[in-house]
Specification:
alpha+beta, five-stranded antiparallel β-sheet
Length: about 210
């Protein structure tokens, strides 16, 4: 009986909140999503997983879906997933901010807000790091094929005295080693690859 009463109260509060808010507004306010309209839908970066291309979609009926990781639901589901809160906890928080009944104090809401900010910063740092690794890998892969082209241009022994040829032969094993590290799924190995590339002046961190 207690469970049914709790569910009924949650749905009652949910209806009240839906009357004074909309999905885009809630997602912008609580988890900082910046939607861009394309056609009749809105798109943004997914708050659940790290990505560089917007795959998180807001449909006209208020449904949310990520084509990257499969996350889906309404605003309350997504807010709860990002903030680590249950549906009742999300409802109480939103209700307080919109002048409805809530058990959350101002300090508790501030603590939750700080937690979101920290999570967003972490997601942004991870995404920036991933982009650095990817950009470095692509750049060095191009350099590798440049050295291979120089190597294949050698026709006679005297060509080996050419400075460009010598440099190409010296760079090949270094570039190979760095590419192996960057292609690893281990973040520490990727970091070693970035450091190595910087040390031998083959890569400069992008702004």
């Amino acid at each position: 009986m207690v469970l049914y009463i709790s569910i009924a109260l949650n749905f009652s509060m949910l209806d009240q909140i839906k009357q004074v808010t909309d999905t885009k507004e809630l997602c912008q306010q609580y988890i900082g999503l910046d939607f861009k309209k394309k056609g009749n839908r809105y798109w943004t970066l997914c708050p659940i997983h790290s990505e560089s291309t917007s795959s998180f979609c807001l449909y006209p009926d208020g449904r949310l879906y990520c084509f990257g990781c499969g996350a889906k639901g309404d605003a309350f589901d997504i807010i709860g997933a990002v903030m680590g809160l249950s549906l009742p906890e999300v409802l109480k928080m939103v209700a307080a901010d919109y002048g409805l009944v809530s058990d959350y104090s101002t300090d508790q809401r501030r603590e939750i807000s700080c937690k979101i900010t920290a999570q967003r910063k972490q997601i942004n740092l991870i995404e920036r790091y991933r982009q650095q690794v990817e950009a470095c890998y692509i750049y060095l892969l191009g350099k590798y094929w440049e050295t291979k082209a120089i190597e294949q241009s050698v026709k006679k022994i005297s060509d080996l005295n050419n400075n460009y040829v010598v440099a190409a032969f010296e760079l090949q094993p270094i570039i190979n080693g760095i590419l192996d590290l960057l292609s690893s799924e281990d973040i520490e190995e990727q970091f070693k690859g970035l450091l190595w590339a910087k040390e031998v002046k083959l890569w400069k961190e992008q702004a």
